[in-house]
Amino acid sequence: MKFVIQRDYLVRSVQDVMKAISSRTTIPILTGIKIVATEQGVTLTGSDSDISIESFIPVEEEDKVIVEILEPGSIVLPARFFGEIVKKLPKETVEIEVQNQFLTIIRSGKAEFNLNGLDAEEYPRLPQIEEENVFKIPTDLLKTIIRQTVFAVSTSETRPILTGVNWKVENNELICIATDSHRLALRKAKIETESEVFYNVVIPGKSLNELSKILDDTTELVDIVITENQILFKTKHLLFFSRLLEGNYPETSRLIPEDSKTDVIVNAKEFFQAIDRASLLAREGRNNVVKLSTLQDGVIEISSNSPEIGKVIEEIQSESVTGEELKISFSAKYMMEALKALEGTEIKISFTGAMRPFLIRPINDESMLQLILPVRTY
Amino acid sequence: MKFVIQRDYLVRSVQDVMKAISSRTTIPILTGIKIVATEQGVTLTGSDSDISIESFIPVEEEDKVIVEILEPGSIVLPARFFGEIVKKLPKETVEIEVQNQFLTIIRSGKAEFNLNGLDAEEYPRLPQIEEENVFKIPTDLLKTIIRQTVFAVSTSETRPILTGVNWKVENNELICIATDSHRLALRKAKIETESEVFYNVVIPGKSLNELSKILDDTTELVDIVITENQILFKTKHLLFFSRLLEGNYPETSRLIPEDSKTDVIVNAKEFFQAIDRASLLAREGRNNVVKLSTLQDGVIEISSNSPEIGKVIEEIQSESVTGEELKISFSAKYMMEALKALEGTEIKISFTGAMRPFLIRPINDESMLQLILPVRTY
C-alpha cells in the first residue's frame, strides 16, 4: 500500500473514526485504525465492536485531488499514535507506505515515522446490512432529537434496556423516548421514506452521543437503516454502525398524565436561573431537591434548605397559574436538564398533584415533552 | 454589618481571594472568606495559612459608587457557596446583611439567600509587615519572570527547598532561579528601588503560580516587600502574602558552563515542533528521550525510537552549527518547556559534550537562560 494524501482530510477522518475506538478493548487489533486504499480512495475504520465508524476519503472531490493512490492495499495502525502523528505533521501532504512485515512509513516534509502495523486481514468484518428500508432525517434535526432525549437514559446497569433510547417508527413518524425511571424525555419528528416502515428498537445512549459528535450541523439528509440487531447511519462519506440493545423497552405511554390540576406558564430562562440559584445550597445534599409553591397573583416561589449551610428563597412572576394551589418538591438537576433540552422561550408545566409525575412542554409545540417524578418531602 | 455592592466588583474580588483558599485545610475557618466593611469600603480575605490574599473594594472609584455602607462590621462566609452565589445572582447590585448569630442575608432582586457565617474575630490575623524596603517591578514583567522560571521547580518533597524559586536581589537587579536538579531556569530583571536592597530568599512555586493568576497584564508597578519569613506583593487593591521556604538554596552558578564545544542556532518554532513530533512515540516510555545529532552543512537530526511502537527521524536545517560534531540525548519534555519559556524567534544551544549540561538562550539576550542535563544513552 502506498498513497499521498492531503493532511487535513486525513486528520478529520482519523478524528471521526477515533470516536469508536476504546483504549480498554479486550481485542488488541481494535486499538488500531484500519486503512484500506483502493483506486477510488482511502477508507478508515474504527470500532469497539459495539460502535463501528467508517470514513471514506475519495481520490477527488470538486475537481480537487485529495489522494494519489500509488499502490492499493491495507494496514492496521495503532490509533492513538497515528492520530497524534497526523495532527502534528509539518507539511500539507502526507505519504503513507507499507513495507515488509506491516512496517509503515509516514512521511511529511523532512519528518519520517516508522510505525509497526498489523495485518488488516485480522481486523473484524463490519456487519453486512441490506439496505432495503431506508428512512431519512436532516442531519441537524437528528442531532437535536438526540440532544433532547439521550441525557435522560439510565446510567445504571440494573436495567440495561434503560441505558438506551427507544426509537419507534410508524406512520412516517419517529418517536424517541428515554427514561431512567425518575424522569422521561420524549421527542417526535416526521421522517422521509419511500415505503411505509415500522420499527421498535432501543439504541445505546453511548452510541447516540458519539454519533452526535461526528455529525455536522447541516440540513443534508442522513440515511438510516435498521436491521434485527444493528442500526446504520449513512452520510456522504461516513458510515456509523451501532448494535441495538436486546429486550423489550417498557411501555411508557401510560406514565404520561392526560389531564392536569395546576398549569404554570413561565419564561424558560428566568425559571431555569431561579432553579439554578435555589439548587446552589442543595447540591451538597444527596438529592439536590428544590421546592416550588404557588402563591397569589401568579407568583411562584422556589426555595431550598440545607440546615448546616443555609437556605434560599426566590419569587418569580409567572405568565399564568391556573387550577389548584400546589406545593411540590423535585430534583433541581432533572428540572435543569429538562429545561435545557426543550426549545422555546415560554414553557408550560402541568402538575397533577404533589405526588404525581408532571409534564414540561414548550407552549404551542406538541413534538416534545419532558416528564419528572416529584420527590416526597411535604 | 450591612452594605449594598455592585455585583461585578464583588465577583471579581471573591475570585481573587478564592485563589488562596484550599478545601483541604485542617483549620475550618480558613474554608471561609472574611468580609470586613468599613466607611472606606469592603475588604475580602482568603488564606490557606501559606498564602493569604486580601482584596479591597473602595466605596467609590472614578466618581462611581461601588459600595454603599449601611452599617460597618465583619463576618466569615463559606467560600465555595458564597462564590457560587454571587456569580449567579440575578441583579447588578447585592445587599449583604449580618443578623443575629452570624446569620447572613444575601439579597439580589427577588432572590434571598440565608447563609450561616462564622465570627470574623476567630479568623487568623495576617502577617504584619513593616514596609521599610520596597522594590518595584511592572506587573507584566513580574508575570513573565514567573512564567519563565516557576515551571522548573521540583515537584518532589525530597528536597523541599527545590519546590521554590530562588529570588536574589542585589545591585538593583533581581535574579530568579528554579531547578529540580535535572534542569534549571534563570531570569534576570532590573528593579526599581529607592535605597539599595539585598535579599536571598526562596518563594514556594505554588505561591508564584497563584500570584500570576490574579495579576492583570498591565504595566503598573507591583510593590514587593520581603521580610525574614514572608513576601508581600502589593497592587492597587490587592495584597498577596506568601510565606518563604526555610533553608539555604543550593549555589547554582557553578552548574552553568562558561564555554562550549558545539553551538547550534535554530528557529525556535521549527525546533520545538520537531522535538514535539519526535517525542510522540517516546512519551510512552518512562523517560521521553529524544536524540539530537549534528550532520553535514548545518543539518541537525532529531530522532527517537520506541522498539514496540516504531521510530521517528527528522532533519532540520539550522541557522548555523559551529564546533565539534555531537550526538546527545535529552528529555523532550524539558526541552519543550524550556523553549516555551524563552522569548525570541531564534535560539542558541551551547553544548559542552554529550555528558555535560547544555544551555539554551535567545540570541542577543543575556537576561534569560535555560539549562538541561542530558540523558546517558550513547
TrEMBL record, chains A, B:
DNA polymerase III beta sliding clamp N-terminal domain mapped to chain residues: 1-127
GO cellular component terms given for this protein: cytoplasm; DNA polymerase III complex
GO biological processes: DNA strand elongation involved in DNA replication
Gene Ontology MF annotations: 3'-5' exonuclease activity; DNA binding; DNA-directed DNA polymerase activity
All copies of domain DNA polymerase III beta sliding clamp central, residue ranges: 137-251
Function, in words: Confers DNA tethering and processivity to DNA polymerases and other proteins. Acts as a clamp, forming a ring around DNA (a reaction catalyzed by the clamp-loading complex) which diffuses in an ATP-independent manner freely and bidirectionally along dsDNA. Initially characterized for its ability to contact the catalytic subunit of DNA polymerase III (Pol III), a complex, multichain enzyme responsible for most of the replicative synthesis in bacteria; Pol III exhibits 3'-5' exonuclease proofreading activity.
Protein name stated in the entry: Beta sliding clamp
Organism of origin: [Anoxybacillus] calidus
